[in-house]
Task: inverse folding
């Protein structure tokens, strides 16, 4: 059973009362050259202008840049086409070339939208969680509410909808204090600014490498640790089905589920209009549910939930992750989730 509310603060404590069990960690890139500062300046200027463009002009700009990016970035575009076809085939509906190209082009445009939304939100709404929640429909299941109120959860999502704003909304709803695991861009001044912008919004960022060392302290303190688990895992991956095909999948959420006995909560934040969102948090995996399960079984369950998130709004998904590289094309008995 899920409840839906609009613009309501559902739980948590005020920012002034927030206690962070793990101190701020640098999440910085390694490029600190003069060219890096030139790129940083261009990025800051472009963000300032795009955040203030009228929506029709912004949409035109996004469309032009997306088509150019698809022409230049041939490798990722090709991987995205295969990913889209694999995913849509699992819906049982016919898949056309036009549909595939629309989703691939849309992935580039959507990335740009997500990148500028925090600055656009600050410029147009003035910042602040009250303004954010007023424009957000919140859908919470009873299970999710129970996990939120108990604290000490792992929040899992994918690069669908507005993943940059998702952590801020989750924290505003009551999943707090909220730690988000992130990989820094290589441009060092840009990475420092991005981290500062994220932490200004009431979340704390942890570097992808080394984040697991802080997990026990965060969970035991009743905090929320957020992960995006739809990328191709590189370190100690497990092979689990994603849209019916083997994919290298991250084992970290499963490790925490079993080791720390904490629930895994699935959440996604979808765009429903210009600076309007729908925050959905319904499915919870409780530790007892996966007692004795293998890492592959846990990853399979997690991937099945990520599939649902993606197919709920495939036009808002970042299809450019190469999920099937270096994996077999099928399992012995392939099926779609």
Result:
């Amino acid at each position: 059973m899920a409840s839906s509310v609009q613009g309501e603060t559902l739980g948590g404590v005020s920012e002034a009362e927030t206690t962070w069990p793990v101190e701020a960690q640098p999440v910085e890139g390694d490029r600190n050259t003069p060219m890096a500062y030139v790129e940083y300046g261009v990025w800051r200027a472009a963000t300032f202008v795009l955040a203030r463009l009228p929506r029709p002009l912004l949409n035109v700009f996004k469309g032009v840049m997306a088509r150019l990016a698809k022409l230049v970035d041939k490798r990722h575009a090709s991987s995205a086409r295969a990913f889209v076809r694999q995913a849509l085939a699992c819906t049982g509906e016919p898949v056309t070339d036009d549909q595939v190209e629309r989703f691939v082009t849309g992935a580039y445009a959507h990335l740009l939208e997500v990148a500028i939304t925090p600055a656009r939100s600050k410029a147009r709404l003035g910042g602040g969680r009250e303004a954010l929640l007023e424009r957000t429909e919140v859908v919470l299941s009873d299970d999710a509410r129970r996990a939120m109120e108990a604290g000490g959860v792992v929040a899992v999502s994918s690069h669908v909808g507005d993943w940059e704003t998702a952590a801020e909304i989750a924290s505003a709803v009551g999943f707090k204090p909220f730690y988000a695991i992130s990989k820094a861009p290589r441009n060092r001044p840009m990475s420092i600014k991005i981290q500062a912008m994220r932490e200004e919004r009431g979340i704390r960022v942890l570097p992808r490498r080394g984040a697991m060392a802080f997990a026990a302290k965060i969970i035991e303190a009743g905090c929320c640790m957020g992960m995006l688990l739809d990328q191709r895992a590189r370190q100690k991956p497990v092979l689990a089905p994603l849209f019916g095909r083997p994919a290298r999948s991250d084992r970290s959420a499963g490790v925490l589920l079993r080791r720390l006995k904490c629930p895994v909560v699935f959440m996604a934040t979808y765009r429903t209009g210009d600076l309007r969102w729908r925050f959905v948090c319904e499915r919870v995996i409780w530790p007892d549910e996966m007692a004795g399960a293998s890492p592959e079984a846990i990853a399979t369950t997690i991937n099945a939930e990520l599939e649902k998130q993606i197919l709920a709004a495939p036009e808002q998904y970042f299809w450019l992750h190469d999920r099937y590289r270096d994996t077999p094309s099928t399992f012995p008995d392939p099926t779609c989730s």
